[in-house]
């Protein structure tokens, strides 16, 4: 996300992602006295989280996606103060991004012997996480809890047959320094308690699509609700190089040994891409509101995530309260004056010697007449 921020005067403080001021990569601006700054926030770091606006299958009914990050404006570079500001920056980036690769030109000889050169339409790749164990669960669109079963799915689709995919070097991190490896370079799980080995399936209806998936138990790093899963994906034209934990051999391959020799000859055409997904992980017994309040207490502000809420600055709120107090005092004074005048009017009527007579002319005093008028 590209952020542009302007100030009324020179700014000499700090701009960083809330909760990540200890990470130099998440401190974007160390003020130099300018009044305008531009910086970038990475989507897979510094507490950036996302969700889908709908829980439908994005391959059939594309759903809009949201990414957000909370940015702190700290006016004093050394200390946090009450007038520091916090902004939740939200980016709606449309539909799911299917990453693609670009293969070089291919020379194909037809029966006439004349070479025909054409560009190979590249496959597309996408990662998502679903609830439960299996590929039919709902897409994760909100917070998950520690211990929840999830399925990590990587899709590859193309208009033509003849492509292969392998997944390796998967890592989990908190968007900062904490990082553990889930899948090694051979495609094998490092810890079976956290993630299973990859399995796969493919279909040939309308488009050629391959699904590679692994089951995992939700966990989180100490003190950090943000969890990022990143994997290196290799797409090949033809079969990808064999590896000990290839998803096509999920039933026949035994546990990997360090003595196993791995074929290193690459496919004729192949390219690597990196895919990631972000999760917000809650502890057992913790609800979304409690997590938001706890996060806000640690950073010194409160945020209501309701889409219909309005954020009011403290100065404006104080001004509104002062105005309301002034209006209330004015109304109280006016009511007191009216009561005083009313009492004087009643007293004047009581002291009038002709108060039993109703004059024909206009008068200030009126009495109730209990008689019959013919």
UniProtKB/TrEMBL annotation:
It comes from Aphis gossypii (Cotton aphid). InterPro entries: ZP-C, ZP-C_dom, ZP_dom. Residues 1-252 form the ZP domain. Pfam families: Zona_pellucida. SMART domains: ZP (SM00241). The chain crosses the membrane at residues 316-337. Keywords: Disulfide bond, Membrane, Transmembrane, Transmembrane helix. This is ZP domain-containing protein. It comes from the Eukaryota.
């Amino acid at each position: 996300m590209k952020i542009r921020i302007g100030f009324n005067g020179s700014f000499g403080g700090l701009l960083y992602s809330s909760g990540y001021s200890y990470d130099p990569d998440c401190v974007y601006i160390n003020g130099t006295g300018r009044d305008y700054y531009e910086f970038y926030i990475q989507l897979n770091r510094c507490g950036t989280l996302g969700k889908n606006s709908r829980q439908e299958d994005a391959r059939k009914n594309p759903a809009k996606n949201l990414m957000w990050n909370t940015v702190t404006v700290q006016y004093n570079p050394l200390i946090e103060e009450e007038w520091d500001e916090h902004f939740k920056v939200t980016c709606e980036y449309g539909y799911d991004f299917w990453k693609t690769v670009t293969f070089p030109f291919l020379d194909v000889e037809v029966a006439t012997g004349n070479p025909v050169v054409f560009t190979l339409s590249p496959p597309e790749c996408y990662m998502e996480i679903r609830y439960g164990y299996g590929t039919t669960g709902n897409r994760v669109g909100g917070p998950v809890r520690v211990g929840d079963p999830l399925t990590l799915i990587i899709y590859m689709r193309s208009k033509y047959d003849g492509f292969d995919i392998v997944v390796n070097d998967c890592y989990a991190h908190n968007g900062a320094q904490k990082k553990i490896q889930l899948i090694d370079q051979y495609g094998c799980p490092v810890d079976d308690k956290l993630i299973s080995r990859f399995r796969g399936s493919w279909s040939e209806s309308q488009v050629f699509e391959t699904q590679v998936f692994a089951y995992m138990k939700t966990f989180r790093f100490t003190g950090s609700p943000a969890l990022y899963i990143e994997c290196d994906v290799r797409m090949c034209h033809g079969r990808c190089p064999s590896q000990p934990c290839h998803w096509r051999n999920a039933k026949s391959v035994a546990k990997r040994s360090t003595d196993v020799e791995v074929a290193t000859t690459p496919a004729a055409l192949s390219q690597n891409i990196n895919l990631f997904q972000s999760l917000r992980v809650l502890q057992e017994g913790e609800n979304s509101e409690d997590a938001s309040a706890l996060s806000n207490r640690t950073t010194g502000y409160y945020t209501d995530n309701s889409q219909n809420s309005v954020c009011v600055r403290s100065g404006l709120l104080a001004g509104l309260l002062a105005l309301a107090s002034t209006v209330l005092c004015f109304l109280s004074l006016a009511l007191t004056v009216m009561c005083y005048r009313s009492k004087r009017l009643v007293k004047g009527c009581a002291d009038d010697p002709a108060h039993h007579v109703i004059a024909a002319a206009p008068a200030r005093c009126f009495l109730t007449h209990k008689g019959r008028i013919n």
